User: Fold this.
Amino acid sequence: MNNKLQDIFLQKSYLVWDLKNPDGLSEDSMVERIINYGNWDDVMQAISILGIAKVSSIFNASINQTRNNYRPQTINFFKLYFQKYAQGVT
Assistant:
């Protein structure tokens, strides 16, 4: 678990408004919640902590599953964003 990423959730309760115990979230779940419930600054903070390649990888793995928790508009926006800014970044 990434402690710096976890700190975002301690400071911004609107990201985990529906959870009793957010301490056990995986990095994948934290990225999903930030993209779904966070604002642009939250997304940029996650990218600065994990790196754009890792956030892009987590996002793409999630949307390629049979079921995911992203709205179609969110998928479209971040697919385009990561295609432009995470292409070729390792």
The CA atoms of residues 76 and 89 lie 20 Å apart.
